[in-house]
Design a protein that fits this description.
Length: 367
Amino acid sequence: MANEIIDTRRREFLGASALVISGAMLGVSSMATRAVAADYKQNPFTLVYDGAITKNEPGKVNIHPVKYKLNGLDIVANVYTPANYDQAGNHPTIVLAHPNGGVKEQTTGLYAQRLAERGFITITADAAYQGGSGGAPRSTDKPQYRIEDIHGMADFISQFPGVDTARLGLFGICGGGGYSLSAAKTDKRFKALATLSMFNSGRVRRNGFQDSQMGTIQQRLQQASAARAQEAAGGEVLYSGDANMTDAQIAALPFDLYREGYEYYRRTHAHPGSTFRYTTSSLMDLMRWDATDEIALIDVPLLMIAGSAADTLYMTEDAFSKATGTRDKELFKIEGAKHIQTYWVPEYVEAALGKLAPFFERHLAST
């Protein structure tokens, strides 16, 4: 049974996406010609994005690696403080949730730094069971854990010197965007919510990317159930989403998300804490969850950003239409951008920040 599950997963990877090369994912085949690989070993904070902080200096944005406990697990995070940071002050603050398979040193680090440059305290943490945070089996990817990660970041940053807890915002990217929608339904500490290239992990794991695997839902649930049974019996932990591909295999992937994501996560912005894989048993939880469940509970200002050319745009549009509980919402499309390109392409990052900064400034303003 174990070999059957693994073989089935490998076939599905090339076909569509219950496997989704890890939920935030994959990238542009032309990306390699436009981006120079960032070596995490060359940055003292192992950051891999362009323009990343290399040292802390007075009067500039600084980065503070921190560690805290969440439900008994060690969580690692980076806090960014603005140039005007005052420990005795009352700064607006934003929690950032990273994409599936991503870590804090990649795109959430980029946006956290850039938002700190605009006066916000920001925090982004590695999800429990992933990256540098604790938890086993490694790469467990369950919605309830990712949502709890967001609540945990809010817990920690609310005690950080200089944070104004009455001015707390939430920003999620890709899979982190879907989980941010879910967290904000009930966590009323967040006064404003934004997403970028939102990825509804439950819908994709259940239905396949672009709803392409509706006919195999029960089969894949059987595989996930068998994987959990094997774990419970002390057997090998099975994984989905593993990928070590040639250029030809990358080019043959059926969606921009996967092609560009592979380039981003494995080449141009690779980090040892980042991985495509997740435990196959996680699908039992993922496939029964959906980012849009009870989404009308969100009653704070909502900004959803996505690329106009992204093959994931349908997920943002679906969630936006269902978010009927807030009267203040906006869907902004970055013209010409694909999903992964919103993570790093300078013109698209600037376009996103051009909406994000005023949005949070407006809704996290002092009263």
